[in-house]
Amino acid sequence: MRLRRLAALAVLALLLLAAGAAAWRSVRPQPETPATVAASLLCPSCQGETVAQSQSPMAAAMRDTIAEQLAAGRTGAQVRQWFVERYGPAVLAEPPPGGLGVVLWVVPGCVAAAALAFAIRARRRRAAPAARVTARTHPGEPRDGGRPAAAHGAGRVTARAHPGELREERFTARARPGGGGRRASRAWDAAAVGVVGLVAAVALASPSHRPQETPARPVADRAATLVTLARSLEDKGRYAEAAQIYRDALRERPDDRTTLRLAFTLLRSQRPAEAEKAVRRVLGNAPDDPNAVLLLGLAQRGQGSPAATATLRRFLTLAPDAPAAAEVRRMLRAD
Amino acid sequence: MTGRFGTAVLGTGLVAAVASTLLWLRVALLGVPARPARVATGATLAAAGAAVVALEVALIGHDFGVRYVAENGARDVPLYFTVTSLWAALDGSLLLWLVILAGCALLLALRRDERAGLLRPWAMAVIGAVTVFFFALTFFAANPFTTVDPAPADGPGPNPLLRDHAAMGLHPPVLYAGYIGLVVPFGYALAALLAGRADRVSVAVLRRWTLVAWSLLTAGIVLGAWWSYAVLGWGGYWAWDPVENASLLPWLTATALLHTLLARRVAPGATGLSAWSVALAGSTFLLVLLGTFLTRSGAVASVHAFTASPLGPMLLGFVLLAAAAVLGLAVWRSGAFRSAAPGGPLLARDSALLGNAVLMVVLTAVVLTGTLFPLLAQAVRGSRAAVGPGYFNRAALPVALVVLLLMALAPFLRPDRAPDARALRLPAAAGLGTAAVVGLLSRPGLTALAAFALAASVLAGLIQSTVAKAAAAKPRAAAAKAAVAEAAAGKAAVATAAVTTAAVATAAAGNAGVANDAVATAGAEATGAWRRGARRLLASAGLLAHAGFAILAVGAAASSVYTVASERQVTVGQEVHAGGVTVRLLGVERGARGGGMVARLRLAVAGGGTMEPSLRYYPARDMTVSVPAIRSGPARDVYATVLGAAEDGTGATVRLAVNPLVGLVWLGGATAAAGGLLAAAGRVVARRRGVRPARVDRRPAAVGSA
Q1: Smallest CA–CA separation between B330 and chain A, in Å?
Q2: What are the strands of the beta sheet with B564-571, ordered from one edge?
Q3: How many angstroms separate the CA atoms of B53 and B84, rounded?
Q4: How far apart (Å, rounded) are the C-alpha atoms in residues B24 and B129?
C-alpha cells in the first residue's frame, strides 16, 4: 500500500517536473517570423485584412518585403517601422502601445472587476440565508442525486415548492381586482401609439425620403500607396502583379503618369496590345508627351506593327536627348 | 409584376406584425383569448414566406426589373447559387431574417398555454415589436422589390466570394436561425421584467429556446469558419474580423446564459429567474442587434461585410431604443430578480456556473471593446485605427484557458461540496502528461501548450465520469424494470379475484386501487429511472458540448502554431516545399469561364495526386478571387493557393501551406452543436415522460379524499 502511494507520488513528481520543463521551454521568447510580422500589419488595399490573410498582390509583395528584411537581420519592430514610414500608422494591425490603446485593456478590466464584484457580493449576501432557505424548502433533496427514493421525493417537493404558480392563471392586470382594468387598457393604448410611432419613425428616417448620400469611403491616399507598392514590385521584376496594382490605383485616381507606368509594366510583361491601349489614353490628353510616344512605339514594335518605326522616329525628334534616345537609335539601326 | 406582388406582401406583413404585437399585448394586459393574436402571428409568417418565395421566383426567373435581381442576379450563375443569392446582399437577407423571426414567433404562439408559460403573451408582444421594426425597415428602407426601369438585360451576379462554396446554402440560414432564435429568450427576459416575476414553465421555455438557438449559432459560426477556410484562401478560418466577432458576441453571452440557467438554486422570492439570467438574456439579443448594425452599416471594415447600406442610422437607433428599454426595465425591477449566487464552497457546482458566466462576460467585454475600438479611435482622433488578431489573442485566449480549466472540473462538480480531489487525479495526470510530451517534443508556446494540456484533462475527465456513470446506472435500471413487472403481476391477480366474488369485490376494488397505485408508483419508479436516465443523457449531452470544445481547442491551437507555409514564384516544372510536402507546377491553364477569366494551376503532389487551385477574375464585379485547393486528411490539410499567374502560362506565384489538425476544429464545433441539440432533445423527452409522475404524485391525495 505504502509502496503504491510512493509510486504514485513519484509519478506525480515526474509529471510535474516534465510539464514544468516543457512550460519553461515554451516560455523562452521566440524570434519573430515573417508570418507573425505579417499578421501585425494591415494590407492597405484591403477591407480590414491583415497582410498574412490577404490574397491581394499588394499583400503578397509586402510579405516578400517582410521576409527579405527579416532575413537581412532586421527585427520585427524595425520592419513594422519601415512600413509605418511608408504607409502611415494605419498600416499597423494593433494600436501602438500607450495613448488611446489603453482603452482596450481598461474597459475589459473594469467589466471583469464589476462582474466579479457583483458575483462576490451576491455570494456574501446569500451565504447565510441560502443555507437556511435551502434547508426549509428542499428537505428531501438528495445530497448527490444518488438514491432513487430520495430523487423521487425531490420531484414531489419541487412540485410542492411552487404551488402558487399552478393556480395563478395569468400575469395580467385583470387578475388584480379593482382599477387594474382601466390602467391596463391605458397601457395598451400607450403601447399601440408606441408601435405605430416606431413604424412612422422608420418610414420617415428611411433613405428614400432623404437625399441619397453615398457612404464616404476611406480612400485617403490609397492611390499613392498603391503606386508606391507597384513601383517596389516593378523593382523586383514582378511586372504582371505591378500592372494589376497600377490598374487598381488608376481606378482610384486616373492619372497620366500612372497610366504610363502601367503601359511600361504591361510592355515588360509581354502584353504590348494592352500597353498600346493604355498609352493611347494618355496621348488623347497630351499628344506630344515624349514618354507616351516612346511607349507607343515600343508597344507597336512589340506587336510587329509597321507604324512602330515612324512613332519611334517621332520620339527622337521630340526628345533627342532623352536617356532612352540612344537605345532607340540603336534599335532603329538594327531594324 | 413579381415586384409589385412582393411590395404588397411586405406591406401586408407590416400590418400583420403590428396587429400581432398589439393583439398579444391585449392578451398580456387584459387577459383576452389568444386566438386572434395567433392568427395575426400566422399571417405575419405567411407574408414573410410569400415575400421570400416572390424574390426567389424573381431571382430564378431572371426578372431584372426587380431591383434586388438587377443588383445581385446574373444569367450565368448556377441555379444553386441563384437560390442562395437571396441572402447574398442585405435587402434579401432581411427577408430571410423576417421569415425566421416570424417562424420563431409562430412556433412559440402555437404552443399550448400550459406549455408556454405565463409570460408568453408578454414575450410575444416583445418579439412582435422586433418584427414590426424589421418589417418596417424592409418595407420603407430596403425594399428589394422596387422596380428598375428600364430593366437591364443581365446583372452582375452575387459577390464572387459567395458563389463558390456549397456552405453558402447552409451557413447563413443556420447562423440566422441561431441569431434570431435568441429573440425568444430576449422576449421572455423582457416579459419577466415587465411582469416582475417568472414562472417555472416560462423559465423552461426560455432555457430550451436558448439551448436550441445556441446550438444553431454554434453550428452557424463553425460553418462560417469552414467557409472562410475554404473560400478566402489565406489558410486560416478565424481572423477576429468584425463580422466574425459580431456572431461571437451573442454566442458568448448565450453560453453564459445557458450556464446560469443550469444553476439549480434561485434566490428566494417569487421569481424563477436569477438577475444574471435576465441580464444575459436581455444583452444577448441586444448584441445580436448591435452586430447587425455593425456589419450591415459599413461602420467597420470587414472582408465579410457584403453590404454597406444607409440602414445604419436606423439600426443604431433601434439598438439604442432596445438597450434603453432593457436598462429602464432592469432599473425599474432591480429588486425583483436576485442573483443566484450560492453560499457553498468556491468550487461547488453553482459557484462554478457563476464563474463561467463571469468569464464569458469578460470575454464579451474583450471582444466588444476590440470590435468597437476603431469606431472610438475614428471619433476621438479622426483617424482609422485597427485592432488585429494580436490584441484578441493576447486578451481573450488567457480567459478562454480559464474557461477550459472550469470545463475540466465540470464533470466532477457537486451541488454543495468541492470536487472530490481523488476523482481529479486522472484528468490532472492526463493534462500534465500531455503538457510534458508536447512541450518537450516541440515548442508551441505557452498558450498553445496550456490549451493542449487543459483539453486533454477535459477529455480525460469526461471519459472517466462517463464510464463511472455507465457502471453505476446499470443495476438501477434493472431494479426498476423488475419492480414494474412485479406490480403488473400483482394487479392481474387482484383483478381476477375481483371478478370471482361480489363480496370481495368492494375490498378488491380497494385493493385494485392500491395495486393500481403500486403499478403507478413502480411505473413512476421506472419513469423516475428513465427520467434520471434522460437527465443523465442530458447532462452527458451538455458535457458532449464540452468535449466538442476541448477537441476544437486542440485543433485551433495545433493549426495556429504548427502550420507551415511557403510562398514562391515558380515556372512550370519547379517545386514548392512546405512542411514535408512538395508540389510541382505542371502547368497553367487560362480560359474564360462565364464571362470571367480563370487561371487554373495543375500541381503534382509528391507521393501521388494533383491539386488545382485557381484564380478567377469576375469582370462584372471587378474582383479577383483566389480559390484554394485543399487536400484534407485526418492529421493535416495541404492547402494551395495561387497568388498570381503569368499571362503566358509559364509560371505562377504559389502559396503552399500544411495545416495540421485543422479538421479537429470542424469536428469539435459539430460535436458541440450536436451536444446542444441533444441536450434540448433530452429535455423534451424528459418532459414528455415527466407528465405521468406528476399525476401519480397527486393520486394519494385523491384517494385519501375519496
Answers
A1: 15
A2: B564-571, B651-660, B636-645, B629-632
A3: 12
A4: 10
Q: B627: nearest CA in chain A?
A: A55
A156 — contact with chain B (CB < 8 Å)?
yes
ipTM: 0.77
> Residue B441 sits in which domain range?
420-562+666-705
Q: B60 and B160, same structural domain? A: yes
Q: Is residue B181 part of a domain?
A: no
- Other residues' Cβ atoms within 10 Å of the Cβ of residue B406: 19
Domain boundaries, chain A: 32-95, 106-143+151-156, 222-334
The three-class DSSP label of residue B602 is: strand
Contact B233 A55 (CB under 8 A): yes
Provide the residue type at B208 as one letter: R
pLDDT in tens for each of the 335 residues of chain A? 688 888 888 988 888 898 888 888 877 667 788 888 888 888 877 777 888 888 777 788 888 889 888 888 888 888 988 888 877 777 888 877 777 888 888 999 999 999 888 888 776 665 544 444 344 334 333 333 333 333 333 333 333 334 333 334 445 444 443 345 788 888 888 888 999 899 988 888 876 544 443 333 333 456 766 777 777 777 767 788 888 888 888 887 788 888 888 888 888 888 888 888 888 888 888 888 888 888 888 888 888 888 888 888 888 888 887 777 777 888 888 77
Closest CA to B246 of B201, B326, B305: B305
Q: Which of B369, B394, B588, B597 to mutate to probe the A interface, most A CBs <10 Å?
A: B369
Grid cell 507573425 — which residue? Answer: A36
Residue B591, H or E segment: strand B581-593
Residue B240, domain member (yes or no): no
Q: DSSP code of B618?
A: E
CATH code that applies to domain A222-334? 1.25.40.10
Residue B582 C-alpha cell reads as 512538395
B409: in domain: no
Looking at the structure, do residues B590 and B637 belong to the same domain, yes or no? yes
Asked if B486 and B508 sit in the same domain, the reply is: yes
By C-alpha distance, the chain B residue nearest A170 is B118
Do both B549 and B448 map to the same domain? yes
**A162 at the B interface (CB within 8 A)?**
yes
Of A40, A64, A119, nearest to B341 by CB-CB distance is: A119
Whole-angstrom distance, CA of residue B487 vs CA of residue B501: 22
How many structural domains comprise chain B?
3
**Joined grid coordinates for residue A150:** 430520495
Using the Cβ of A203 and the Cβ atoms of chain B, whether some distance falls under 8 Å is answered with yes
Q: Say yes or no: B435 and B555 in one domain.
A: yes
Residues of A in contact with B380 (CB under 8 A): 100
Distance in Å, alpha carbon of B407 to nearest chain A alpha carbon: 19
Instruction: Say if B288 falls within a structural domain.
Output: no
Determine contact: A60 vs chain B, CB below 8 A: yes
All three cell numbers of B505, joined, read 369485490
- Name the residue of chain B whose CA is nearest to A96's CA: B385
Residues B638 and B690 in one domain: no
| Distance (Å, whole) CA A131 – CA A137 | 10
Domain covering A32-95 assigned CATH 1.10.150.120 in the classification: no
Asked whether the beta carbons of residue B525 and residue A148 sit closer than 8 angstroms, the reply is yes
String of DSSP letters for B173-205: HHHHHHHHHTHHHHHHHHHHHHHT---HHHHHH
B434 with B518, same domain? yes
* A111 vs B14, B361, B384: nearest CB: B361
Percent of chain B past pLDDT 70, that is, above it, reads: 82
Q: What is the pLDDT, as a whole number, of residue B185? A: 95
User: What's chain B's Rg over C-alpha atoms?
Assistant: 29
Q: Do B681 and B569 fall into the same domain?
A: no
Residue at a domain's end among B660, B678, B694: B660
Please identify, among B145, B164, B183, the residue that sits at the C-terminal boundary of a domain: B164
Reported as a pLDDT band with limits 50, 70 and 90, residue B525 is: low
